[in-house]
Amino acid sequence: MAVTVSTFQKMKAEGRKISMLTAYDYTTARLVDEAGIDAILVGDSLGNVMLGLGSTVPVTMQDMVHHTAAVVRGAQNALVVADMPFMSYEVSAAQAVENAGRLIKEGGANAVKLEGGVPMADHIAAIVAAKIPVCAHIGLTPQGINALGGFKVQGKTDDAAEQLIADARAVQDAGAFAVVIEAVPAAVGARITEELRIPTIGIGAGPDCDGQVLVNQDMLGMFDDFTPKFVRRFAEAGALMRQAYREFDECVKDGAFPAPEHCY
Ligand code: KIV
Fold it and tell me: Is residue 213 lining ligand 1, measured as CB closer than 6 Å?
């Protein structure tokens, strides 16, 4: 059965954990969907893992619409959440609504995600008023890397933890249906989860969040440029792929491929 934002609320109420993985293309989306993952995030992490840009900052609306449409074609049941790229929602509420609308209308996503707490609450409310579900993202917000001064754990002091809780409350009050919490102490993840009515989806925010999200290439062991502590490799697909490519190379060079059964 198709997962909706109401399913998310129900899962939190019933204490059932929510699974979310990123995907950026049709084939991967199909595999993730067939595995029964609840939600697919078309993350702007595609800037790192698909486009080799080194950060999410240069990712464009065009990139996001293109990849979202491919994922939507592969997802039958999972809720598809599309990331709003840097500078596509910060300028004004009107800009935020217009670009969120593109991800829904042109990309076919079910919901959008944007980074920010208290300062983005009005923009979230405007998007929600336009009947577009919003997932917020607080804690370590990779689009703000230049302001944050690097990929650092957030909410480590009492003041910083209080600010995160205020951010979480603000996005909930603005109408967000869920909130991603990235790279914060597990105790802060637990406290926000307990305080909010909406589900929390953690990535490096401890085991008590209502759900967990990982970047596909990280959890498959395909991406080595940078591996945060919160990543668990559920497979060594990178090693498997490299081995298959080596074998192909050898077979082409020694004439073992193509064999008669591959010929017309
Ligand atoms: O872009 C992304 O993949 C994300 C996750 C890290 C939550 O925002």
Answer: yes
Mutate to test the pocket of ligand 1, among 37, 44, 141, 145 (most ligand atoms within 8 A of CB): 44
51, 43 Cβ separation under 8 angstroms: no
**pTM reported for the whole predicted model:** 0.97
Task: Report, as residue numbers or ranges, the catalytic residues.
Answer: 182
Q: Is 63 in the pocket of ligand 1 (CB under 6 A)?
A: no
Q: Which atom of ligand 1 is nearest to the CA of 113?
A: 8
Instruction: Name which of 222, 219, 217 is nearest 230 in CA terms.
Output: 219
| Residue-level pLDDT, tens digit, the chain, 264 residues | 899 999 999 999 999 999 999 999 999 999 999 999 999 999 999 999 999 999 999 999 999 999 999 999 999 999 999 999 999 999 999 999 999 999 999 999 999 999 999 999 999 999 999 999 999 999 999 999 999 988 999 999 999 999 999 999 999 999 999 999 999 999 999 999 999 999 999 999 999 999 999 999 999 999 988 889 999 999 999 999 999 999 999 999 999 999 999 999
| Longest CA pairwise span in the chain (Å) | 70
- According to DSSP, residue 232 is labeled -
Question: How far does the centroid of ligand 1 lie from the alpha carbon of residue 157, in Å?
Answer: 24
Residue corresponding to tokens 């064999």: 259
Please tell me if the CB atom of residue 88 comes closer than 6 angstroms to any atom of ligand 1.
no
Peptide bond into 258 cis (omega under 30): yes
